[in-house]
Batch of 4 targets.
Target 1
Amino acid sequence: MTTDIHKELEAEYTRFIDFGGLLDKKMRKYIIQYLQNKFDSDRYAIPDLSDKYYNYFKKALDDIFLIEGLAEVINQNATIKKRVILDTIYWLKQSYKKIRAKHPYDDEEMRLGSWSVTPTKAFVQRWTALPTYLSGLYRRDELDTSFFQSKFDGLIKSKSLDTISTDDQSQIELIFTDLLTQWDALLYAKILEFQLGKFDEEKEDYVDFLSNKVEEYNKLRDLVEPFSEYFGWDMSRKLWQKTSFDLIERYTEFLKDEDSIRELADLLGSMREAEIELEEELLEKTIVRQEWVSDETMRAEIVGTDTSNRLSEMLSSEASMLSDEDSEVYFLKKYADSKLLTFRYEDRKLVKSEDHYMEVNSRIKQKEKGPFIICVDTSESMEGLPEKIAKVMTLGVLKMAMHQKRRAYLINFSTGVKTLDLYNIAESIDEIAAFLQMSFFGGTDATLALYEALRQLESENYEDADILMVSDFIMYKLGDDVQAQIKHYQVNKNTQFHALAIGKQANTDVLHYFDTNWKYDPNHKGIIKAMTEGLKDIGDRG
C-alpha cells in the first residue's frame, strides 16, 4: 500500500473514531482496531470484548472479508483495498444510523423516558397505570408486574405523598427505580434484537454488492487481459494499479457484450500467433554444413586394440585359451568381465549439421517513422464479422504504433465521425476499451472521415502520418475535392494511403485512390497471416 493511501486511511480511521456516530468512541476504536487487524495482523491485536454489539460487528466484518475472491483482488490492488475499507466504514456508519432512526418500540421507549423523569409525587398519584401497561407487554417470567403492584399497593394505596412516611417514600423510590431498570433492560434487548436483525439485512445487501463488484471486476479483467497481452501491457503493475471498482461503472456496456468481446479476443489471438510465425519466417536463417567425422562402429580399418567381449573381433591369442581346460576357465572370466583383447576398427562418415542464427541486415536509415491516422468504418453494413476484423486490424496498427513509439489518431465514421487521439497508447486502456465496445450503425460516408484525416495532416502532430482506412468500401465515389487533396499529399508529401477492404462488394473506383489495397475474404484461410504481413508492410514503409 502506498504512503499516500496509508495516510488517507489513517485520517479516515481517526474521523470515524472521533465522529463516527456508531455506539460510543471506545467501541468505535475497537471496531477500527479489528478492521486494521484484517490487513496488518502483526501491528494490530484483536480486542477481546464480550459486548454484544462489538461481537456482532466483528462477525459482520468477518463475513464481508470472507467474500470469495475479495482478498485476492484487494491484495493485488492498493487502490481497491482503500476503496473497500472506506466503503465498509461508510456502510457501518450509514447502516447504524438507518437502523437507529426508527424501530417498532418508539412508543414504549417514549413512555419509559416519560416515567423516568416522573417526580415521586406524580408517581404516587398515578402509579397504578404503570403495572397495568407493563403487564400487557411482558410475560410474568420476563417481568413480574404483580410483585411491584403489591409492593406499591402496600406502601401507597390511596394515600397522598404528604401522608406517607419518609421511610416509605424512600422505599417507594427504590422499588420504582428497580422497576424502571428491569423495564429498560427488557426494552433495550428488544430494540437490540430488532436492530441486529435489520443490520443483518443491511450486511447481506452490502455483501451482495461487494460480491457482485468482485465478480464484475474479475470478469472485466479476464475480458481485457487478452488485449493487454497482445499490446504487452502489464495488467498487475501499470494499467490497473490505480483503478478501483469505480472503473466497472464505465464499462457497463463492455461487460454486457461479453460473448462478442471473447470472440474478438480469440481472433486477436490468431493474429498474435500469425505475427510470431511471420517473425520467425522473416528473421530466422539456417546454414547446412557437411563434414567427415570418425565413426568407430564402422569396420573398415584396424587402428589398434582394446578390451571388450566382442568375440568376432578378438585376437587369436585369446582364442588359444580355449584349447586347454585350465585356461578355458580364465577365458570365460575375461569374457564375463569384458576383458578380452579385441581389435579396434574405425572409419569416417559424412555428417550434415545445421546452424540457426538471427540475421540483422544493414540499410540506409530512413526518416523517422510518423504516426498513424486510422479511419474505421462503423456503418451498419460492417456489423458482425467485418466489425471484428476492422477492430482487430485497428488493434494491430495500434500495437505497431505503440512499439514503434508512434502516435495514433482514430476516426470512426458512418454518417458522421468520432475521433480519438491516442497520444500515449501504452496508457490508453480506457479509450481502447471504448473503441472495442463501439456499436456499428448508420450509413457510410467516407468523405467526412478523409476530410478529418486530411485536416490532421495539416497539424504539427500528424503531418507525417500514414493513413489507413478499414471499410467494406460499399460507398459512392469520393468527392472531387477529396480526390485532389489525396493526390496532392501522395505526390508532394509522400503520404501513404492504405486500404483494407472487408468483403467482396468494395467499390474499386474508390480503392483506386489508395497506394496499397488489401482485401479480406472470410473464406480465405490464410487471411490472418496476410493481414499480419500487411501490417508489417505498413511499418516498413513508415
Note: Strands lie at 284-295, 301-308, 340-358, 372-377, 408-413, 417-422, 466-471, 497-502, 516-520.
Target 2
Amino acid sequence: MLSILFNILYALFSSISMLSLLPMIKILFDEGEKLKEKPVFHGIKDFDLSYFEDYLNYFITTKNDSQGPLITLIIVVCFVLSTFLLKNIFSYLSILYMTYLNNGILKDLRQDVYDKIISLNVGFFANERKGDLIARMTSDINTIKVSFMGVLMMVREPLTILFTLGGMFAISWKLTLFVLFFIPISGFLISKVSKNIKSQSGDIFAMEGHLLSNIEETLGGIKIIKNFTSESYFSKKFKDFTENINMLNNSIGKKMSLSAPASEFLGILVISVLLVYGGSLVLIDGSLSGGAFIAYMGLAYQILTPAKAITKANHALQGGNAAYERVAFILDAENPLKDKENAQVINEFKQEIKFTNVSFKYKEDYVLKDFNLTIPKGKTIALVGESGSGKSTLANLMTRFYDVHEGSITFDGINIKDVTTKSLRAQMGIVAQDSILFNDTLANNISLGIDEPKEEKIIAAAKVANAHNFISEFPNKYQNNVGDGGSLLSGGQRQRIAIARAVMKNPPIMILDEATSALDTESEKLVQNALENMMENRTSLVIAHRLSTIQNADLIVVMKRGRIVEQGTHEELLNMNGTYAHLVSLQSLEVNQVYHENI
C-alpha cells in the first residue's frame, strides 16, 4: 500500500514541479494580468484553471509591489525547489518499497521452487537435465526479478503520464489532443521493434540450461575426460553452445538497442511538431501566452522519460515471461506419488512387508512381472541375480520412489499407497553402492535429518559403523569437512559414514543396495563387519553382488528378468545346483584367479 501511495505522490509532484515553473516565467518575462484584488473562491464545483491563474497573477502583483521583483522571484524559486525535492523524495520512497516488495516476492518464489523440487518424485529427475533445472532455479529466477521490477515501474510511469496529461489539458486542450493523436502511432512503431523478444529469450534460457548441464557433466567427469584425452571434443561442444547463445543474444540486443533511440526520436519528433503548432498559437492566434507555452513544453518533454521507461520495462517483461514459463514448468509439475488426503501415518513395523503380483516398468518393457515376496519382521532377505534383473527396482518400490503399475505392496497389511511417504520412509534406512555425502561436517552427514542430534549418539553410530577410529584421526574429528561429495574420504570411509547415518536414523528396516560391491577387499571386510553390526535385531533387505556377504541370510531370492527363479537358504540353493550354484562357482573362480595373479 505504501508503495502505491508513494508512486501516486511521485507522479503528482512530477506534474506540479513542471507547472510550478509557470509563475517563475511570468516574473522573469513580466507576463500576466496585473491584479490587485484577491480573486473570490466560489467552491470546489466552480474551481478551474482561470481561478488558479487569477490567484497567481494576484500573488505576483502584490509581492512585486510590496517586496520587489527579486524577492518575489526568490520565493517562487524556493517553491519550485520544494516541489522538485518532494518529487525526488517520493521517487526514492516508491523505488525503495518496490524493491522490498520485489525482493520479498522473489524470495518466496525461490523457496516455492526449491520446496517443489524436493517434493517431486524421483522419476521426474530421471527425465530432466540437472544443469537445466539449476538454470531454471537460479538464472531464470534472477531474470524474473529484473523483469518484475520493470513491471512495478510500469505501474508508476503511466500515473506520471496521466497527471502530466492533466496539467497539459489544463494549459491547452488543443495542443494536448494533438499529442494524443501521435501517442498510439509511436506505441505501434515501438511494439514492432520489440516483436519476437519473448520467443528468442525463451530459446536463450533453454540453451543456457543445456550449457549449465554441459558444465556440470564436465566437472563431474573431468577425470574421464582427461584419461580419454577428449578435451578437444568437449571444448568444441561447449563452443557450439556459446556461439548459438551469442547469436541469439546479439539478435535480442539489436532489437533492444534500437527501441530506446527509436522511442526518443519519435518523442522529439512530436515535440518538434508541437513547437511549430504551439508557436502558431502564441505568435499568430494569441490564445496561449509565452510562459504557459514554455511550461507546456516542459510537461510534454517530461512524458518522454516515463514513455522510454515503459518501453524498456516492456522488453524486460517479454524476457521475464519466457523465464517464468520455464520456472512454472517446475511449479506446475505433477507429483504422481503425492500423499492421499486421508493417508495413514505408520509409527512402527509389526509384522511383514509383502509384494503381491507386482509388475513395474520404467518406460515400455516390464522390469518386474507378477512378482511375489514376503519380508517378515526380524529376517534378512537377500536378492541376487544378474544386472537388470530388477533387484534395485524392488528397493525403489519398497521406499515408494516409484509406484507399482500392477499388484500391491503392503506394510503390515496396509497398501503403501495409503500411507504417508514420510512415515513410510521413516521406517527404513538405505545404504547404497554410491554413498552420497554432502559438503558438510562428518557429524552433520551422520546426523542427517535429525534435529539437534546429541554428540554421544553420533559417536555411538560411528562406532557401530567402524568409522570412529578413522574419524578420530582427523584434525577436527567429527567437525572435519568431507569435501564435495565426500572427496576427502576414501571409498571405504564414505561407505562407513553412510552406514553410520543409517544407524543414527535407527529404523526397524534396513535396505542394503550392493553396499560393498565397489570396495577393495580390506575395505569390504571393515564395511561388512559394520553392516553385520547394523543389521542386528533388524529386518533387512540385502541386494548383493558378492555372494560371500549373504551366506547367513534367512532367505536368498535369485532373480532373472524380473522374476524369481530360485529361493532358499545358502545350503538349499547350493544343493539345487541351479542358477545360484552357478553364480557361486563363477565368483569362486574369479577369486582364485585374482589370488594366483597376486602371488
Note: The radius of gyration is 38 Å.
Target 3
Amino acid sequence: MKSLLTLKKYFTRYKTTIFLGFVFIFLSNITSVFVPLFIRDGIDELRRQISKPALLKYAFLIVGVTLISGVFRFLIRQTIIVTSRKIEFDLRNDFWSHLQKLSLRYFQNTKTGDIMAHASNDINAVRNFIGPAVMYSFDTLTLFIFTLVLMFSIDVQLSLLSLIPFPILSIFVYYFGKKIHFLFTKIQEHFSILTARAQENLNGIRIIKAYVREESEINHFKKLSYDYFKKNLSKIKIDSLFHPTLFLTIGSSMIIIMWFGGLKVINNKLTLGELTAFILYMGYLIWPAIAFGWITNLTQQAAASQKRLNAIFAIEPEIKDTSLTNYEIKNIIGEIEFKNVSFRYRKNLPFVLKNINLKIPAGSTYAIIGHTGCGKTTLVNLIVRFYDVTEGELLIDGNDIKTIPLKLLREEISVVPQETFLFSDTLKNNIAYGLNNFESEEFIDEKVNEAIKIAHLTPDIESFPDGINTIIGERGITLSGGQKQRTSIARAVAKDGKILILDDCLSAVDTNTEEIILSNLKNFMAGKTSIIISHRISTIKDADQIIVLDNGMIAEQGTHEELIELNGIYTRIYQKQLLEKELEEI
C-alpha cells in the first residue's frame, strides 16, 4: 500500500470535489438505510390492521427515500468517478512528461513495449483504485456503520451473533489480498514482455518476411501468450475462491439471524417487522462484504501497478539542468571546443573517445571521417548533450556545456541523425517539426518551402498525390531511403539552428543528387558552425578542416590537400574511393 501514497498530490489537487463526493455518499447511504425501518413499521402496522392509506403511506415513503438516494448516487459518480478520470489524465501526462525528460541511455536500455504497458495497463489499474476503489471504500464503510447502528438499535444480542463470521472474513481478505498483489505484479510484468515482443515484430516485419520467420515468430508469440494466459488463470482461480468465501461468510450470518431471530419472534421478544428489517439490513451488509473483496482486489492491483510506475518516476534524468546551469546565457554563437575529452558509455566498457582536443571556430565547416565504429557519431552526440563527457571538458562559446541551459543548447542545434526517423504524419509537418508552434502559418510555409528546395525534394513532392500534405506512413514507410534522408535534411534546415550537424545523411542518395544538395547547403551554412560526418570524401573535401578519427582518437587533421600530402589514413580512403569510382565507370 505504501506505493499508493505517491497519489496524495493528485487527491490534494481535487480535494474539494472528492470531499463533495464523500458528502453525497454519506447522504445517499443515510437516506437508503431508512427503507428497512419503513418496511418494519409497515409490516407491524399492517399486522394490527390492514388499510389502504397505510399501504400508500409506506409505499410513497420507500419510493421517495429511494429516489432521493438515487439522486445522490448520480452526484457521487459525477464527482468521484469524474475526478478519477481527471487524475488519470494528469497521471498519464505526468508520466509522459517524465519520459520526455529521461536521457537517451534509458530508452536504449528499456524496451518500448515495456514503456507502453506502463502507459496503458498500469495507469488504468491505478485509475480503478482512484475511482471505484476509493468511492466504494467510503461507500461500504458508511453503509456498514449506519447498518450496524440500526441493527444494534433493533436487537443487540442478535447483532453480535450475526457478526461472528466477520473475523474469519478479515483473515481470508488478508490472505487473498497478498496473493492477488503478487500474481497481478507477475501478470503486468509478463504483459510488458508480450507488448515488447509485439512491438518488435511489427517494427521488424520486413526482416521477418525476408528471412521466412513468420511461423517461428507465431510460435514464439503463442508461447508468450500462453504464459500470459496461465498467469491470468492463476489469478482467476484466486478470484473464484475469494468471492464464494465472502458469500459463504455472509450466508452464515443469515442462517444465524433466521434461527435466533425466528426464536425471538416465537417468544414475542422481537416483532415480525423487526426481524424483516434485520434480515434486510443483513442484506445491506452483503454488498459491503462483496465490495470489500472487490476493493481489496482493485487496491492490490493498483498498488502493484503504482509500484512499477514509481520505479520509473524515481529515475532521475541523467542529462538535465543543474545548479551549475547559467540561465543568463541567452544565445549561442557556435564555437565548439573539446579539451582532453574522453568518453565511454558505461564504467565497465572501454573508452569510445580518447583524449580529444579540437577547436571548431564559430561559422566554420568541419568534417569528420573514419572507419565504422571509430566514434564519429559519439563525438557529435556529446555536442547535442545526449551524453556528458566522461573525462575532460566540452565548451560552447567558452562556456562548459553543462552550464548552458539544455533547452537553449538544443534549440540552437539542427541535427540530421545517421538513423532517419520520420513521424506518421504529412511531409510538411515532418519538415516543420523543429519550428515553434506559435509561429505564423506564413512563416512556417516560407521556412518549409526554402528547406524543400535546399534538400532537393521538389521533384519528388510534385510526384506525390497530395504534394507536401501527403501522409508518409509510419516511420516514412512510403518514402525511399534517399527521400527519407532528404526529408530529414529539410527538417534540420527549416529549424535553422546556429550549429548544423549532418551525420552521414547523404549515404542513400546518388552522387548527382549529393552534389546538388551540397551546393544548395553551401549558402545556407554560411555563418553557421557546421559539422559533416561522411564516409564519402566527395561530401567533405570542401570543408575548412577535416578530422580523421581512428580508434576513438584524432589521427589526422587538415584540409583535403594537406591530408592528401600526409599520405596517411585519409589518403588510403581517398585512393580506395577513386578506385571504386573507376571500376563503376568501366
Note: Strands lie at 336-343, 353-360, 365-370, 391-396, 399-400, 413-416, 499-503, 529-533, 545-550, 553-558.
Target 4
Amino acid sequence: MKRLSLFLVAGLFACSSTNEDNAVTGEEEELVAGACSITDGSTNRRMTSANRAKLDDPFFKLVLAGGSGKKCPLTTKDAIARIEEETKASMKSFVVSERGDQPTNGKTGYRFIGVPTIDGKSDVVFYSMLGSKAGVSQDFLEVMALSTTRNAWLYYALEGGKWTLVGDGSTVVPGEAPKFRCASCHTTGAPLMKELQDSWNNWNSIWFSMPDPGSQEETFKKLFSSKGGAENLEKFFFTSIKAHAKGYVERELAKPSGLKKVLKHAMCELGEPNLVTSHNKHSTRFGKVSASSFMNFPPSILVSQLLKAGSKQGGYASVVNMNLPAMNSLSLNGTSYSKALETIGSKIGGEAGDTMFGLSFPERGFMDNMVVEELVAKGVLDKDLLTDLLMTDFTVPAYSKVRCDLAATAPDKGATAEEVRAAWAANLKTSTLKGAKELAARLEDKADFAKHETAVETFLKACNARNTSEADAYALDIVKLASQRRKEFLEIYEPLVESADLLPSDTLTDTKPHAFRLNATTCKLEAQ
C-alpha cells in the first residue's frame, strides 16, 4: 500500500519538513513546558506564538499546546497515549484494508482511524495511522481537528518526529486548485471516508469481520483488538461533514459571487465522490467470481440520492423524498453479474476478479449533497426548485456533462428560492446549452413535481423489468455503466486511489467518460 491515506497524499506530495535556516528566532524558548513545536506548512517556518494562539481546535488544546509539563508526543504510540490520558478514555478505532480478507498476504496493508471522544463528542478529531502485520508506523500520523471559530477542519501531520500544520480547510474552495497537499484528496476541505455508505467495502463492519493478521507489535494489537464497525464510524463522518458544509456555505454566501458557486453543487460534482458497492459479499472474488444469487445494489447508480436515498444509506434529511416503490426492488442476478465480469475482463489488483462486495462504483459525494441540504435549510433552494434541477439528465446521477454545463447559467443573486428560480429561468432564456430550454420550462412550471416523480418511478420499473426478462443483458449494461463511472472518477480523483486493489479495471474500450446513459423509458444503454 502506498503512503496515501485517508487524510493526506504523502505518496504524491513530498512531506514538508522544518527548515532550520528559516525557523523563527527564539520560538523554542517561547514555548510553554510540554508544548510541541509546530511547523506552518504554508511557510515552512515554525509557528509564532501569535499564530498558535489562533488555534482553537481540541487536538491542539489537548495534545500540542502544552502547559501540563508533559513531554510533547513525537511517536504514534505516544500521541495515542496522550489523547487517552487527556480524555480519560480509550480511543475508538476502525480499520480498512483493500486486502483485509487476505491477512496472510505479505502485501496486505491496514489503515486505522482513531476517534477520541472529547467533551462528549466523537466528531471533532480523527486520527489516521498506517500499518501492516509488522506493526503501525511510529513516525507517521495524521490528524484532522475541527476549529470552532473557522467551522472548518485543520490538518496536522507527525512526520519524522516533527509536527506540521499542513493546512486549513476553511481556505479550500471546491472546484479550485488545492491550497495545500491534503486538499488534493479532500477537495472540499471536509473529512473523507471514501466508502462512507453501506456496504463499507474494505472496512471492518457488520458485513465483514476482518480477520486478525496476528501482529505482535503493541500499537497494532491495541488498535486491531478494539476495532469497531464502519457502520458506527460513518455516523461521526455524517455530523462532521455536515458541520463543514454549513461553514462552507456561510463563507461562500458572504462573498459577491458565492451564490453561483454553491448552487453549482446541485448540478455538478465538486467534492470527492463516495465509492459504494452491492450489499452482498462474494464468496469467491478472485479468478471466477462467485457472486450471491441475489445482489442488492445502491440506487445511486440509477438516480440521485437527493431524489430519494436508498434505504441502506443514512445521513440524509430527504429534502425531496420522492415516493418510489420500485427503488425497493432493485437487484441483479448474481450469475448474470459473474458472466458480465468475465465478458468485460474484470481485474482487481492485477488479478482476474472483483472487489469484496460486487459492483463498485462512485456516487455523488456526501459533501456535495450536504451543501445542497444546507441551501434548502437556508431557503435558497426548496423541494420543487431542487427537483427541477436534478431532473436534468436524471438517469445520469453523477458526472452529467449536460447538468454540469448548465450550472454556468445559475444566478449570482437571490435570497430566496423564488428569487433564485426566477433569476435562473431568466438566464436560461438566452442559453444555447443542451437542456437549457427544458430546464427553463421546468423552472416555470411550479406544479410539475408529480410528473417528475412518475418519470423516475417509470424508469426504475423498467430497470426492474429488465432484471426479470433479460437478466444477462441488464447485468452487462449495469456493469458497463459502473465501468464508465469509475473512469469518470479516475479522470478527476486519481489521487484517491491508493492501489490497484481499490477499484476494478477491465478491458472495455467503449465505456469512456460520458459515453453512455440509461434510457429513461427502457433502462437500456444509449449514447449520451
Note: The first strand starts at residue 38 and ends at 40.
